[in-house]
Structure formats: C-alpha cells, structure tokens
Amino acid sequence: MLFKSVYNEFIKIAAKPRSYLGLAAITLLVGVILLALKADGLSFISFVTASFEQTLTFEGNILNGNLVAFIILQMLIIQIPLLVALVTGDLVSGEAASGTIRMLMTKPISRTNLLLSKFIAGGVYTFCIVLWLGFMAVVVGKFLFGPGDLMVLNSDNLVILQQDDVNWRYVGGFIIAFLALLTVSSLSICLSCFTDNSIGPIVATMSVIILFTIIGTLDVRIFDTVRPYLFTTHMASWRSFFEVPLPVKEISKSVIILFAHNVLLIGISIIKFNRKDITS
Amino acid sequence: MKNIIYFLFLYLIPVFSSAQDGSEIIERLMTRMNRVMDYSVNAKIKSDIPLIKILTVNATIYFKQKDKFRIISKGIAILPKQGFTDITKILREKDTYSSILTGTEIIQNARTEIITILPGADTSDLILAKLWVDASNDLMLKSQITTRSSGTVTAEYKYSTHKEFGLPESMLFTMDVKKFKIPKGLATDINRTSDAESNKPVPKVGTVFIQLNNYVINKGINEDVFLQK
Asked: Searching chain B, which residue's CA lies closest to the CA of residue A78?
C-alpha cells in the first residue's frame, strides 16, 4: 500500500508543471555558466593564477570539466533548495488548499503511511534534481571542457586533485548534497503540515534557510554553540569530499546531523499530521 | 732583472685577469650545453609550495635549440617561473652582462667556482645571477637568479649518465612564495568561517623537485610539439 501511495504521490508531482521548473532552471543556469566559461573561462582562471604569477607557473589544462563542474555545484547549491521547496512545500498544504486531502484520507491507508509516502516521493524528486544537476555539471562539463586535474579554489589555499581521484569524490559529494536537499524537502513538508496554503511553506522554508545561513556565516561568538547543529552548516559538507586528507570525522558528523534533522522533521510532521483536524 | 720583470708581466697579467673574469668558464659551459640540439625527457615533478596541496605529477619536457621549450603533463603541474631555460638564455647573450669570479665553494663534494653575473643595463629584468660551476667537469651545480619580476629562484642540479651533455638527472628549485588570497568571488569556500588553521603562519619558501629520466638527445623533435594547443 505504501509503495502504491508513493507511486501516486510521484505521479502527482510529475503532473505539476512547476516540478519541471527545477529541471528547466538547472538546465538554463548550468547552460549559461558553461557558455560563459567556454567563452571567457581563461580570464577567470588568470584571476586565480595571478596570485602566483610572480614565482610560479601552472602547466596543464586548468579549465577542465572537473573544475567547471565544481564551480557550477558551488554556485548552484544555494539555489537548488528553492527549487526543491517549490515542489515539496505544497505536498500536504497544496492538497489541503485544493480540498483533495479529505478524499485522500478516505483511502485505506494510515495517515502516517500517507505522509511517509509524500516524504518518499519528495525524496525521489529531490534525487532526480540532484541527478540532473550532476549530469549537467559533471557529464556535460567534461564533454565540453575535457577531463583534467581538479583545482579546488579555496580562499587561502589550493588543493589539486588528480583526475583519477575525482570521480568518487563527486559521487560522495552528491550523496551529501542529496542528504542536505532531502533535509530541505523534509523541512518544507513538515512546514506544509502546519498550514493550508501552498506558498506559506515554500517561503517559510527559504526564510529558515536564509536565517540559518546568516547565523552560520556570521563570525560572532554567541552563535558558536548553535552553528554546528544547523543543517545549513552541513549543506556545504559535500565540499569536504574534495579535501586532502579526507575529513572522515567531519563528513560523518554532517551525515549524522542531517540524518537526525530528517528524522526529527519527519517525526514532527507525523505527530502534527495525525492530530490535524482536516476540515477542508 | 729587466727580463724577469718583463717575464712576470707577460705571464702573470693574463693569469690574474682570467681569474677575475668568468667568461672562459661560461664559454666552456655553453659549449657543453650547445652539444644538445634537442632533447625530450620524462619528468616527475614534486612541488612543495606553502598552502598548495598537490601530488607528484608526471610530465614530458621537450627542448630544441635555441630556446624552444615545452612541458606536457597529463595533469596540472606547478613549476617555478624561472628555472629551466632562463640561465642559458641569459648566458647566451654575452654582450648584455659581465661575469666575475667571486669565490669558491664545495657543493656535492666538488669544488665549484662562483660566477656572479651582473647585467649591463640597469633597466634589465635581471638584477643578479650567481652560478656555482664545477670547472673541472664544466657542470653547473647550482644557480641563483634574482629578477625584478620573479624574485629569487635557486636551483640545484645533480648529474649522472648525461653529464657529458650537461643535462641533469634531478633539479631542486627553491623560491620565495608570498601568502596568497584568492578573491572571494572566485573562491569556492565563501561560506566557510575563518578557523585557527587558516590563521597559522605559513612557510615563505617553496620547493619544486624534478626527477628526470629517459633522455632522448639529438634525435629531432617535431615543431608541432612546441605549438600551444
């Protein structure tokens, strides 16, 4: 029954035009970045190498598919939560607003299972978004710019990873990115359980992400105790896969915290949804 | 008495004058180097630059007289800006510098003559160059170039099987590296807050060690190799 419900929920997501907005936005954004880098990527690189120009030279293809994919991921990882929340934010409230949730409740499925099926369908959609982003950034990026060593551009250091050592890092990075976006999906579905209109949870999700991001980036001591537990702090953890040596402890901590957020948000949602008085 | 003074004058003046001038040693050095019309060699490049993490990179180096030079590596390699061909470029233009013997030093168990090279024009990029030359074998064991554009780069050379051509089997470059900051707009860790690690003092000297093997000398190299793609 749960599988059938998940299937139904996914069909509902697939039938909404806004679900394709995310895929179209990724295609357009990545396309624009790829085009810009193809046209004038070398001047972008010269800004980086200018810091060393006096004493060092870099030999080899710096502007390659791996670097391009990395730049794209870094640029878009801030926008992707919006694309996810846009669809998952009204999975419950949208039904409440349109009045279909009442009919849905008449089916022989528990409220918990119904809600879980929405979480799973939201997760599948999030996975599709991450997969498409990965395809556009890594596969298309490598196709256009060719393979090569990855130069990870940190503000005060550089890490150069050999191309044979990069693919597994992308896989790891995408898994963490998926877990982070799944948290956004869970948050928006959770907020969706508290309201009966579609826009509210989407805006609230983005507001929470912006607020947490500001708290996370502000170098103020009072936030030091909170910062490690904010899910937004760990949304950028995919980058840890591109560090040498691999910070296994940090990655594990991020996975645990993101996972805990998901469990907590799903738990709150189940409690709220089971107690919800469906009047629409 | 007059004959003795005459003899001493004739004999010792050239000796003293050649002791002050390094051009003869440089000439011998260049003669040896000029035996190589072209070469290709496999290189293993190990860079140890502060704040840059990079593994050893394999590359192929191509050289053709008089100044064609190219490094082709599968990945990204970091090299000193000055080093490979700069010394020979400087030495080839005899009219642009003066060379003085400024002492001796033992390097790699060999007695080396220290030749200081001063540019003729005060507008040239070169400020000062020093060569440590094993005069008995006509081999340059160490060099130090100070230029306005690239600061000071020191190179140490070790020779084995191709010493008759003056081609080293390894080179160790040492150069000053300034602490760098990549502009925030380009860095990919913009959300990262500063930590204790990033505020640590960093060494100011970087090294690049290049191990060279499988020299192919004077077998001809296609011009296409030197075309940048």
From this structure: B191
